[in-house]
Amino acid sequence: MFGVVFPNRSFPMDISTFTQIDTFHWLLDMNHFVGEAYDSIREVCIFLLNNFTLPPDKALAVYIQSPGSPFVFCGAVTIARPSAVLSLPWPEPGSAGGEIQQITADATPLSAKIGVSVEDLASLSSLDVAAEKRIERLALKVGENLFNFMQSFCGVDGSKLIVPMDILDRWFKKFQEKAKRDPEYLKVAATPGSLSDPFLL
């Protein structure tokens, strides 16, 4: 049905590596793979196998759980997007937050887990949560840069800010120069942060 690989850390693993909870849910216990160093695994590649046909309105959703924390949604693959490399922003162990529905009888899991779930595509917020968050952070960084630049040239007329007509051209040229001088500038602005969507099974 599907396989996973941890880039630079593992060979491809098929569904037999996971424990099947029911028809639509699977768990990978990270203790069996890396023990307590689960948070050193920062990415997972998930892919549909050639002989498996996922309905077009369904997705394979990927979640992660640190010991004692809720599940966090990371992203998904679909028949139109049959593989993806997803960031794994492991939550703090034992952290609370968000709704949680356990998939086992254990109240507090003792190991980190990766969960895979067949879900309705329409119910998912994103196919790649970390990439979406990076875009949001980048947009905020660019907007902040523009606002700060405009502030240094504007005047005030009552409740209005007055800026030179060519302010956007001047800002864009400076922004391009900064990005050329320091290519890491935009990358740093888009570094992934923590996420909090639960693994709802």
- Poorly predicted regions are 97-109, 192-201
Mean pLDDT: 77
Number of strands: 11
Q: Main beta sheet, described?
A: 5 strands, antiparallel
Q: What is the radius of gyration computed over CA atoms, rounded to a whole number of angstroms?
A: 22 Å
> Given the structure, what is the number of helices?
3
Quaternary: single chain
Q: Beta-strand level of the residues, as a percent range?
A: 25-35%
Q: What general outline do the C-alpha atoms trace?
A: elongated
Number of domain modules: 2
Give me the strand/helix succession. Answer: EEEEEEEEEHEEHH
Main structural class: alpha+beta
Cα distance, first to last residue?
19 Å
Proportion in helices: 10-25%
Pfam family, one: Hikeshi-like_C
GO biological process, one term: protein import into nucleus
Protein name: Hikeshi-like domain-containing protein
Family: Belongs to the OPI10 family.
Molecular structure report:
This is Hikeshi-like domain-containing protein. One of its GO terms (cellular component) is cytosol. There is one protein chain. The chain has three helices and eleven strands. It is of the alpha+beta class and 201 residues long. The protein folds into two domains: 2-127, no CATH class; 131-189, no CATH class. A hairpin with a 2-residue loop joins strand 3 and strand 4 (25-29). The radius of gyration is 22 Å and the shape is elongated. It starts with a strand and ends in a 12-residue tail after the last helix.
